[in-house]
Amino acid sequence: MTILYPTNQDLDPARLRQAFGTFPTGVVAVAAEVDGELVGLAASSFTSVSLDPPLVSINLARTSRTWPDLRRAERLGLTVLADHHGPLCRQLAGPVEGRFTDVDVTVTERGAVLVDDGLARLETTIHREVKAGDHVLVLLELHAVDQSDGSALVFHRSGFGRVSALLPS
Ligand SMILES: Cc1cc2nc3c(=O)[nH]c(=O)nc-3n(C[C@H](O)[C@H](O)[C@H](O)COP(=O)(O)O)c2cc1C
Questions:
Q1: CATH of the domain at 118
Q2: What DSSP designation does 20 have?
Q3: Ranges for the Flavin reductase like domain (predicted)?
C-alpha cells in the first residue's frame, strides 16, 4: 500500500507565494519586437538548464496576456537585470503601454529586444513549452550571449536587493 504524506496544511496560493519567496532569484526582462511593437515582461523564474544544447527556462503564468504575442516572435531577448534595475523591473511588470517608456534597448536583426545596461543578454528561440499547472514552463534555446561586469538585481520575499558580499570559499 502506498502511504501518501498526510498534511493538514492548507496550501493556498498566499501561503505558497510566501514559501516560494524565501528562495532568492535574479530577474530577467523577456522581450521582443512583434508587429512593430516592443512587448515584454519581467520574470524571476529564469533558470539555466543545459550547456549542450544551450538551454535556459522561464516559467510564465497561463493568464499572461503578453506571452501569446511574445511567443510569435522569431527571437526572444532575455536580459539579466542589474542591481539598479528595481524600478525597471516594476515597469516591465506594470501596465503594458508603459513597459518600454524611456528604456534604452537594442533590437536585434531577428527581433529580440535586449536592455542595453543589463548584466547578460541572451538571444533565444522557443525549444519547447510544457504545461505546468497554472503556468507554462518554456525551454529556450540560446543563439547568442554576451555579459558584462556588475552586480545582479535580487528578488527576495517580494522585495529587491543586491548581492552585498560573497562568502569566502
Ligand atoms: C520581480 C518580478 C518577477 C516576476 N516573475 C514572473 C515570472 O517568473 N513569471 C510570470 O509569469 N510573471 C512574472 N512576473 C509578472 C510579469 O512581469 C507580468 O506582470 C505578468 O506576466 C502580467 O503581465 P502580462 O499579462 O502582460 O503577462 C514577475 C513580476 C515581478 C515584479
A1: 2.30.110.10
A2: H
A3: 20-162
- Local structure of residue 152 (DSSP, 8 states): B
Q: Is the pTM of this model over 0.70?
A: yes
Overall size of the chain counted in residues: 169
| pLDDT tens for each residue of 16-34 | 999 999 999 999 999 999 9
Atom of ligand 1 nearest to the CA of 96: 26
Q: Which domain holds residue 128?
A: 26-155
CA of residue 167 to ligand 1 center, whole Å: 30
Tell me: the pLDDT tens digits for 152-166? 999 999 999 998 877
Residue 66 lies in a domain: yes
Q: Which residue has the cell 501569446?
A: 68
Pairing of β 153-156 and β 28-34: unpaired
